[in-house]
Amino acid sequence: xxxxxxxxxxxxxxxxxxxxxxxxxxxxxxxxxxxxxxxxxxxxxxxxxxxxxxxxxxxxxxxxxxxxxxxxxxxxxxxxxxxxxxxxxxxxxxxxxxxxxxxxxxxxxxxxxxxxxxxxxxxxxxxxxxxxxxxxxxxxxxxxxxxxxxxxxxxxxxxxxxxxxxxxxxxxxxxxxxxxxxxxxxxxxxxxxxxxxxxxxxxxxxx
Length: 207
What we know:
Layout lengths: L2 H4 L2 H25 L2 H18 L1 H14 L3 H13 L9 E2 L3 E2 L12 H19 L6 H11 L2 H4 L8 H8 L5 H5 L3 E2 L2 E2 L1 H14 L3
Antiparallel strand pairs: 1-2, 3-4
């Protein structure tokens, strides 16, 4: 068995942190002490060594860059997929990435990914069309409505218009608290929903 696998998870994390600190310190020392003509070669060597030792950092960086380059609507699709996950047989009446089955629909819970993706996009675009009159807040409101339903935001019958929408309509941009408050299920605050609201707000709120 490889010795690396015998190291406990905690000790392994400490070892990785220590290795990162050593490499960082070495980088600083080389910048201070090496002659200019050899500095570039050593920088390249250390750069390669760093990402050979910590390849996941390179992959995560590339993923973040790729995500940031996506158009806003595509980023919203990725965000929904991440938090919704794929709904299986036990999630009726929800299928795919959170599509709620409507009267007359017969979509299967084991639908292919392309079909689930298509339904997600259609549902999210329908919400966007509903909120597009809110300009720069349209996509943020669309994401929220996809998860909690447009009625909780716009209001319906005995359900009044949300404080979030009231503040947006009044021009008040201090809406973080109102947005994140949509984090309850059956009256109970869920950490997963809090995290989802925070991520959505950080990615799609425009000052």
